Amino acid sequence: MPIRNKVIALVVGFWMLFLIIELVRRRKLREEYSWLWLMTGSVILLLTLWFDLLKWITELVGAVSPSSTIFLFAFLFLVFISLHFSVVISKLTDRNKELAQRYALLEMEVHELKKRTLPPEEGVLSKT
Amino acid sequence: MEFGNKILVIIPAYNEEKRIASVIRGVKDHLPLAKVLIVDDGSDDKTRRMAIEADAQVLSHPINLGYGAALQTGYKFALEKGYETIVQMDGDGQHDPSSVPELLGAIERGEADIVIGSRFLKTGSTIWAGEIYQAPFIRRLGMRIFGTITSLIIQQKVTDSTSGYQAMNRKALKWVSSDKFPWDYPDADVIIMLHRAGFRIKEVPVRMFENQGRKSMHSGWKPIYYVFKMFLSIMVTLMRK
């Protein structure tokens, strides 16, 4: 692999790892969502430093060049991370719905309780 | 007609301040013994206030979740409060409350666990401005197709698979309150799922009104998504257990 590509790949790989770890450290990124990123950064570094492995995979997948292999992995990663997010979002959507439903039910209970325990006043129909 | 068991009428509503009071009154006129629950799906108008003033119980979502989720909130409420039978109808006045006894009759007689009101059965109809109404061709075609698919799968004739005008007993209520219920766009797939879960389904004729100037749930890209969603949902349902 041309030296320039190698240097760029190394820089990107290290920078990525550093950035992810820093985000986790600052609690801006949860560990559970960081693993796929860390794995990708590590794989990029591994393939860049261990050229024979990269060459072998290039032949295996039939890529044009080792650089193409790296791009292929980067692309696959993007696909997987997007899918991962869709799964997470699906779960969040369901949980969001549950919360809103429980909120509505609880709010009605509070409303009923207030009606029963507070003296009659304008405030009974307060939530309009 | 007098119905014995505790009955709740669940009406999801989103920004229906103009119509909700008359919908509630219509239900109370035909079913004086039943309780009416409006599930206000994050309306930003006076829907909640109008419903309270019309003497209905009101549950309000803090955010808009959609028709299916609002229905399910109603189901969960009914389950919690021990209701034996529920009727569900739309909050926009599309469903004629005079058809409720027809829906409830089948449940009360123990003929089915869930009863669907069909506008296409012999004495069912859709009325618009006093005349019998026919929906646009595409929509009718879509309904026909899904009706046929549903009928084939559950081995029972289903003429109106998209009807939200339904009644169900407590047994079915438990199922629809669970996370198996497809709350994002419940439709023909619910019928199929219920059938596969072992519930008895029956259709009865009902009368519906088509309101002009009604903000349609079926505008823009939604019909395309609807078709996709139905096919996918039905397919995965058949793939499950």
What order do the helices and strands of chain A follow?
HHHH
Helix/strand-derived class of chain B?
alpha/beta
Main sheet record of chain B: 7 strands, mixed
Order of strands in the sheet with the most strands of chain B?
3-2-1-4-8-5-9
Give the uncertain stretches of chain B in residue-range form. Answer: none
Return the domain count of chain A: 1
**CATH fold group of chain B:** Spore Coat Polysaccharide Biosynthesis Protein SpsA, Chain A
Tell me the β content of chain A: under 5%
Output the radius of gyration of chain A. Answer: 26 Å
| Distance between the first and last residues' Cα of chain A | 69 Å
Name the CATH superfamily classification of chain B: Spore Coat Polysaccharide Biosynthesis Protein SpsA, Chain A
Approximately how much beta-strand content do the residues of chain B carry? 15-25%
- Considering DSSP H and I runs of 4 or more, what fraction of the residues of chain B is helical? 25-40%
**Number of separate domains of chain B:** 1
Globally, the shape of chain A reads elongated
